[in-house]
Hints:
Elements: E1 4-21, E2 26-39, E3 44-50, H1 62-77, H2 85-95, H3 100-118, H4 122-125, E4 133-135, E5 138-140, H5 145-157, E6 163-167, H6 173-187, E7 192-196, H7 203-216, E8 220-222, H8 230-239, E9 243-246, H9 253-261, E10 267-270, H10 272-275, H11 278-291, E11 294-297, H12 304-314, E12 343-344, E13 347-349, H13 362-368, E14 380-381
Parallel strand pairs: 5-6, 6-7, 7-8, 8-9, 9-10, 10-11
Antiparallel strand pairs: 1-2, 2-3, 2-14, 4-13, 12-13
Helix pairs in contact: 1-2, 1-3, 2-3, 5-6, 6-7, 9-11
Amino acid sequence: MTKIDQIETMILDIPTIRGHVLSMATMRTQTAVLVIVRFSDGSDGIGEGTTIGGLSYGPESPEGIKSAIDTYIAPALVGRDADNLNGAIQLIDKLVKGNRIAKTAVEIALWDGLGKRLGVSVAHLFGGAVHDKLPVAWTLASGNSETDIAEAQQMIDIRRHNIFKLKIGKRSVRDDVAHVARIKQAVGDAASVRVDVNTAWSLQEARWGLKGLQDAGCELVEQPVPARYRRAMAELTSGYEIAVMADEALNGPEDALAVTKARAADVFAVKVAQSGGLKRASEVVAIAEAAGLGLYGGTMLETGLGTAAALQLFATVETLDWGTEFFGPLLLTEDILAEPITYHDFCVQIPKGVGIGAALDPDKIAFFRRDTGRTITAVAGE
């Protein structure tokens, strides 16, 4: 029996190519918690947990993720059967409440290790891939209309993206709608335009916002109001033709069931880390499919490692009505994978190979490790 021998964690700080403006913060660095699980047969597995803008986005910070793994999760798993992932997942759910991103990072490494030992991909472990590529969106988040238009047109010209999600919610509703309208008018029918409000609006603001966005030709609005306002989300979902997507409202299958029951979304943005791991994310997908809701592969702006893991799962999903946003590695100044994920013809390619289909670049890992003593910049701020 192959056992879990050791679980190592480290924090990486990787600059972004530009400021990534959200309603609650501006990201200039992405911080990822890297997990390496070593097994008794000499094999290993790699995983990752990331947040967006630190604690300004959600309850887990990179430092908290590392601490939860080192202090609570790793001691419980060391010495256990490495192939019994269900047992490991159930044990950690029993011992550790919440901390979904920390659980995700470890679980990805366990799936990766299992796939490597069996000589198959993680997609194979989830029933087999039905796609070799997936449509991929790009987020326009400079906050400047002319900058975003130029960026969008460049992406269309080089055939990297023709789906664009705009981060809004930091300015007035009127100004945000005008910003979106200018970009949609500029790209016309050559691209799909969606928005992500990241919970910034009240219900009253959202009523005006959705009407204006719908009139501007925007196709979808993501989480316009706070996650706990399910009745407001239900009103917006039933009141407008524009699709309403749940994101922050979805933290695992229990939330997915509650949102479905409340009819509080047309579309689910399914994030592996927010769901609590690949297995729980697959359960969220199943609930959406059973309810006839649209699906969208969401990101926590993972590096290539976490992105590869998510792609393995979503390659097994039959219908992704709204595509994916697995562009995280492209937002970073450097890729930490030995062979970066491929993007072309408006799609992201599913990584080939065993496990999650990714291997680390040791030099990049050594350079971006926080404990190397390098000077690091702020993760997020105004």
